[in-house]
Amino acid sequence: MENPEKNTEPFIQTIIRTILTTTIIAVILYWVHLFPSGGKSKLTQFEMIWSVVFCVVFGGHWLELVFINYLKFALPKNILLLYLIRVAYWFLCAIPLFFVMNLICNSFSHKTGHLGHWWAFGFFYIGIELLMHAIMQMRFKKSFYNGVY
Prior knowledge:
Number of helices: 4
Mean pLDDT: 87
Shape: globular
Helix content: 55-70%
Order of helices and strands: HHHH
Number of strands: 0
């Protein structure tokens, strides 16, 4: 079935938006000291935080497009079922993002670091997605809250 609502955006626009969003989030996370320094310089710590956040923002964007442009149209049209599947999809998408984040985090350290548990990040990622879709809803754009977009 052809997707009449296919979400397309120029790649350069995606990159610019992702870099700006990542930088803002990374600055906030750096200021609140969410990531332990582990003896790293301030610049190295910020680079690590920025890289981890970029992984989530950029990877999450593409995983969302897979759902919006392809998977959604192969699913049943029951709205409650679509909501449940979407939340489960976010949880499953968090797993590869978590492992890439851990890989990035460990590349900045001489010893193996640990960002936590993958399943805990899955629930955190669901919260991130709900927040991002709430922002889209407030901006009167298509979102999870107005039809599982």
